[in-house]
Design a protein that fits this description.
- The chain has 269 residues and is an alpha/beta fold.
- The protein has a seven-stranded mixed sheet with strand order 3-2-1-4-5-7-6, with helices on both faces.
- Helix 3 packs across helix 9 and helix 8 packs antiparallel against helix 9.
- It is globular and about 50 Å long.
- It holds the Pfam family Methyltransf_31.
């Protein structure tokens, strides 16, 4: 199914006031398991750096929730968040101006073409690369845009059932995906080819995470795809499943997985 129309509807609902958008960000932080893993890695990176004037690239910023979270850690960090969707970029710039986060700027850019040599200390790409066919070109551009010693953090589906694809005959749950998921060695090799000196990768979305994803994301998205009337029932649905999802996310984020439907990848220039 196509996910973008549902995302657009959600954005329209929560963009009405800054308070609603902040609430939306907090709900995403709790519900989306990838956020638990990404925040964990970002906290490790940020340790001892919050007083340094660093430059950060949010490569494929979407709603802007990761930029919001990072900008709350330090006012000394300058964050450039880029995305191809003009409407989301405009909405995000308006929101961040409203809340007074002057160290943040959103811009329309195509990651296949965008490059800003030796400019950033950190780049993050969260659930972006599964949407881009020319992935090695993007990795090369980000590598060129990082300063020496800079790090790229990636969250993306794996080939162990990512995008809810488990057999050769199945197709991606999200039709905007150009690939079902990365083989862990494949993405490491592509990043090395793009010029990164060191690459580390681990699985996320182990068994607890996969159950949480179905309850918190897959089933609600399927129902919203059939009828927008489900928006009325959605709060009551989450009242039931939310506590279980939080517990499952907590377990998944604190467990080492031999396999999983997601990957967390770090690469250094």
């Amino acid at each position: 199914m196509y996910y973008d129309p549902i995302k657009k509807t959600l954005g329209q609902v929560f963009n009405r006031t800054p308070w609603l958008r902040r609430l939306f960000y907090h709900l995403l932080d709790l519900l989306l398991l990838r956020t638990w893993h990404v925040h964990r890695e970002l906290r490790r990176w940020a340790k001892g750096r919050t007083q340094e004037p660093l430059n950060i690239l949010d490569a494929g910023s979407g709603y802007g929730q990761y930029t919001y979270w990072l900008s709350s850690l330090s006012s000394k960090w300058n964050i450039l968040a880029v995305d191809v969707k003009e409407e989301q970029v405009a909405d995000s710039n308006a929101f961040f101006r409203q809340i007074g986060r002057r160290n943040v700027q959103f811009a329309v850019q195509d990651l296949v073409l965008y490059q800003e040599p030796n400019s950033f200390d950190l780049a993050l790409s969260v659930d972006v690369m599964e949407h881009i066919l020319e992935d090695v070109e993007v990795f090369r551009n980000i590598h060129a845009s990082l300063k020496d010693g800079g790090m790229l953090l990636i969250s993306t589906p794996s080939d162990q059932g990512g995008s809810d694809v488990h057999d050769d005959g199945e197709t991606s749950f999200i039709e905007e995906h150009v690939r079902d998921g990365y083989n862990i060695r494949e993405i490491q090799q592509k990043l090395t080819t793009a010029g990164f000196d060191r690459v580390e990768a681990r699985y996320s979305y182990g068994e607890p995470g996969q159950v949480s994803w179905r309850l918190s994301m897959k089933y609600p998205i399927l129902m919203l795809g059939k009828s927008r009337l489900f928006f009325i029932l959605l709060p009551f649905y989450y009242l039931v499943v939310f506590p279980f999802c939080l517990l499952l996310n907590w377990f998944d984020a604190r467990t080492t997985h031999d396999s999983g439907t997601g990957l967390i990848v770090k690469a250094w220039k």
